[in-house]
């Protein structure tokens, strides 16, 4: 949470305090103008692990308008052990994400043409994550056993964002998206199978749900508004937030 707050504060600070660099502006882009930026989204890499590789491509359409697409591999951290629940094996843990935005760079505020400077954009995104886990109940005098946990989560989001992209030596970029409220639709599925046959099974299902939402905060809305079921799929609406740091090369 501290990292998110730091990113937002840094973005706002850079937006208003960044030095003005005089450079000729164009009403129409000249021939040979570098319209393309290839980027690496470092946010999931550092937050959730080195397996998360996410790339982005931005294309300049007009002097102050661009679009970008973002896609990559998306995997959340391991669950580990919690109290009497021990996750012993992970199988088929995988996922992906894809998103896109249409950007409007501020003509009066920015000293250069796109892709440099302050912008706002409309965006949409989709995240899919699935996992299979074996876990066992231990440290309990009355309940022992093993269960298989099979789950998946899909998140569809759409909203607006505010960001600032720095252009360095006409080739390299640092793209900060530090504000991006959205409306999200969540679908989730959680299945349990195994040899744990006690009346308190629902309590353990709730405990697993609490573990997942504690580990992955974006599941809170799914639990609060839609809930998990032992078998089946639930759908809910909620609010999301978009933030990221991307390092790019312009050509």
Name some characteristics of this structure:
disordered N terminus; 8-stranded antiparallel beta barrel; 52% strand; 251 residues; 4 helices; Porin; alpha+beta
Q: Would you kindly provide a written description of the structure presented here, covering whatever features stand out?
A:
This protein has helices at residues 2-17, 43-48, 201-215, 220-226, and strands at residues 36-41, 54-62, 65-73, 81-82, 85-105, 117-137, 145-168, 172-179, 181-194, 233-241, 244-250. With 251 residues, the chain is an alpha+beta fold. The protein has one domain: Porin (Beta Barrel), CATH 2.40.160. It has an eight-stranded antiparallel β-barrel.
Secondary structure: elements and pairs:
Blueprint: H1 2-17, E1 36-41, H2 43-48, E2 54-62, E3 65-73, E4 81-82, E5 85-105, E6 117-137, E7 145-168, E8 172-179, E9 181-194, H3 201-215, H4 220-226, E10 233-241, E11 244-250
Antiparallel strand pairs: 1-2, 1-11, 2-3, 3-5, 4-5, 5-6, 6-7, 7-8, 7-9, 8-11, 9-10
